[in-house]
Write a structure and sequence with these properties.
This protein has 130 residues and is α+β, with helices and mostly antiparallel strands. The chain contains two helices and seven strands, in the order βββββββαα.
Length: 130
Amino acid sequence: MDFDDYGLYEIRNVRQDNSGYRLRWFSSLDSDLYIWEDPDSEEITRFQFYFNKRTEEQMIEWDKASGISFARVEEFQGAFKGSPTLQECDPVNLNEAQELFLRESEEVEERIKDFVLYILKSYLYKTNSA
């Protein structure tokens, strides 16, 4: 199997902040998924899905308190390479993001995969119904 064929896999021993939530990180060549969950109930309270990392990277973020948002990842373009920044943008192509997530998430825990897909499909349905 070609390395490009591998999907998201979990990065173990992710450094935790003091938010009270457990951060989990899944990564592949073309995407990253960050999940914040309650350590006791495993309720997902936030996620960020980064995709198209090798071309025009974009991000979908969902937060229990504020809902869904979208951003482009902008690389620093100066003399020295710096940290990328997030620039708010119009909604991304959710059909493309959903297809990519389905392809990449084969090894992701079923409850996490189902939750992310539910949020993406719900927003897609909401925007198509408006």
